[in-house]
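B., you asked whether I could sanity-check this one before it goes into the benchmark set. Here's the sequence:
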Amino acid sequence: MYSRHDMVWLTGRGWDAALARALPGQHGAMEQWKQQGWPVVVRRDEAGAAPGTVSLGLAMPPDAVGVKRRIALHALESDVAETAPPLSLSDAAHAAPAHWRPDLSALVRSGLPLRAFGSLALQAITGQGYLTAKSDIDLLFHPRTRATLDAGLALMAASALPLDGEIVFPSGDAVAWKEWAGAERVLVKGAAAVRLAPVAELLATLEDA
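And here's what the prediction gave me:
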């Protein structure tokens, strides 16, 4: 039902329950998220999580020394008011600094199935300052065919942008782009676990066309 990086909006009851379990020092950020109506993000299911719950998280903007504090939380599925996939690159690109925008626009025009997460997405959603001079652009690439996979990876490898992120296969399994090139086995991130898998297994989930 939920995929990693999906956006989730909680009900008031869901926020109240999460705040009741918050650790010292977390309440201020969580109250801000609740009051602003910002979404939290689906993360990998924790081992031993109770049935009917979803594992979520939020990240604060980097502090003065560049540390981005993250808060893990859980919610009952019944306390989820709304869900949405990660922002499309076209919806997130406006939050990028001006010197990135021409190359981002070229990626958008390519028609590749790209979605944003991480700092670029959070800045677009909240309007807060997540991006720094050291930031990567975290993208999710969702190819359905082998041709799209090959074309997309070639285009992104040629980009001058500081791109990072994951290839998300039709099964929902995800692999970091940087681990893909030339590998025979890769670390696969699933909804509940991480495993090693042959590249051929993942390629088999793509259409030939």
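One thing to flag: DSSP finds eight helices and eleven strands in the chain. Otherwise nothing jumped out at me.
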